[in-house]
Amino acid sequence: MRYFIITGTSRGIGESLARILLNDENNQVICISRGMSENLNFQSGLKPVNVFNFSFDLNNLSDIESLFQSVFSFINEDNVDSIYLINNAGILSPIGPIEETISEDVIRNINVNLIAPILLTSHFIKYTKNWKIDKRVLNISSGSAKYLLPSQSPYSTAKAGLDSFTKSIYIEQKEEPFPVKVASVYPGVIDTKLQTEIRSTSKEKFPYVELFNQLYVEGKLQTPLETAEKLIQLLMSSDYGKETLVEELTQM
User: In the annotation, is 170 catalytic?
Assistant: First the structure.
């Protein structure tokens, strides 16, 4: 069996990833999110043995270790051919000049976008350290890590940190006898809740809001499903992990 641990599956890219993977009866999908997608509830009802759902807020950093204890209690090592972690969950807010942000919002942003993926990856590597199988981590980053805009400093900083973390883990793992392959990817501009949040922001708080409204009006946003298909093709490719930062997510 192939096991996929995915965060942020209640909507958007994460939900689409899970839906695609559940079409293969050889896949076991472990979903981690604050809420459960109605679409996945329906689909999991068709294949109850192929999906496990964990309701969890990644802002609760101190509970991530116990979360992974629960996750791996569902995994029989003797039945695992390969295992993958997709750090997909992310939040955009707060949007605005840094002096106008609320401290709790900044902390939550960094927790969910950076510290939680670090801890999840750490536990994933720890639990699978001696497993002689294909092991991979895919970190969903953002072009905002490289192409900076005003009013998104916590988000951009967290994603830049995620990219650096990915590169560091690659250096660590390449010397291991049973290494975990890792890559960070910029998925592109996608029609998700984050984009809706950007478009609803005032020009006073985010001067580039009209640019994002124009992309939406002109139909230049990728769908979550299209993006998820490309991400899975990237994750399952034979060259995965040779390039630690994938800035252009193209059809494989």
Answer: no
124 exposure class (CB count in 10 Å sphere: 0-12, 13-18, 19+): buried
User: Which one-letter DSSP state was computed for residue 243?
Assistant: S
Do 36 and 6 touch, CB atoms closer than 8 A? no
Model confidence, pTM: 0.89
Q: Which H or E run includes 225?
A: helix 224-235
Q: Which CATH number fits domain 2-188+224-246: 3.40.50.2300, 3.30.450.30, 3.40.50.720, 3.30.559.10?
A: 3.40.50.720
**Using 50, 70 and 90 to split pLDDT, how confident is the model at 252?**
very low
Residue 48: which of 74, 69, 18, 28 has the closest Cα? Answer: 28
Beta strands in 107-247 (DSSP E): 134-140, 181-185, 245-246
Beta bridge partners of 31: 6, 53
Q: Which of 84, 155, 170, 186 is catalytic?
A: 155
Q: If you count them, how many residues does the chain have?
A: 252
